[in-house]
Amino acid sequence: LGLFNLVPIPPLDGSHVLENLLPLRAAQKYREFGRYGAMIILGIVILDNFAHTGILSRVLIGPMKYLAHLFSGINLIFFQVSTSSEAKASNRPVYGVRILI
């Protein structure tokens, strides 16, 4: 959930981080774009759930693995995260973590 909050789409916190990194004119345009942010997020979540595109998992799985390794010290080579395309091919649950040890 913390990583999802850092996605740079308004009203999420990542949009504030990106806004502060942009030049002033670009930041103003980005702020104007912010009124559509909630609709964009809703559209992405609906598209991901109903069309099984795997957008959210592709964006979030890499950073999740990195942070889990950084904070826990567990080598995540032993973990396999199922995405929707892998699950369809192997008749497994759409999302889940399987321990390979």
What characteristics describe this protein?
101 residues, 6 helices, 8% strand, 2 strands, mainly alpha, two-stranded antiparallel sheet
Tally of DSSP β-strands? 2
Structural class: mainly alpha
If strands are numbered along the chain, what order do they take across the biggest sheet? 1-2
Biggest sheet details = 2 strands, antiparallel
Order of helices and strands: HHHHHEHE
Low-pLDDT runs of 5+ residues are none
Q: What is the gyration radius calculated from CA atoms? A: 17 Å
Mean pLDDT: 73
Structural overview:
- The chain has about 100 residues and is mostly helical.
- The protein has a domain at about 1-50.
- The protein contains six helices and two strands; from the N terminus they run αααααβαβ.
- It has helices at about 1-5, 15-20, 25-35, 35-50, 55-70, 85-90, and strands spanning about 80, 95-100.
- The model has no long low-confidence stretch (mean pLDDT about 75).
Write the layout of secondary structure elements.
Blueprint: H1 2-5, H2 13-21, H3 24-33, H4 37-51, H5 55-72, E1 79-82, H6 84-90, E2 96-99
Antiparallel strand pairs: 1-2
Helix pairs in contact: 2-3
